[in-house]
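Saturday, quiet lab. Running sequence design on the structure tokens for the scaffold JK sent over.
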């Protein structure tokens, strides 16, 4: 985990790359993405696990087009 000096350097680089006008939009979109990700995790854990489908009775007979 980076300490305070490393975080300041990272923030300074981000500020130089994106500029002051784009930082609020960038932070807002990151917050929305985090919220959507957490919502998806919550919805995924609430769903019942899907049961595997039963294969058809003739699934062991494959037809690859070759004739014997």
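Result came back. Writing it out in full:
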């Amino acid at each position: 985990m980076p300490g305070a000096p490393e975080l300041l350097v990272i923030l300074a680089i981000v500020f130089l790359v994106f500029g002051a006008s784009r930082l609020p939009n960038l932070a807002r979109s990151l917050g929305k993405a985090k919220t959507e990700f957490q919502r998806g995790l919550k919805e995924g854990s609430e769903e019942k696990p899907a049961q595997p489908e039963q294969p058809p009775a003739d699934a062991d007979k494959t037809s690859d087009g070759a004739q014997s």
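Notes for JK: The mean pLDDT is 80. The helical segments are 4-18, 23-46. Ask whether to fix the surface positions before the next round.
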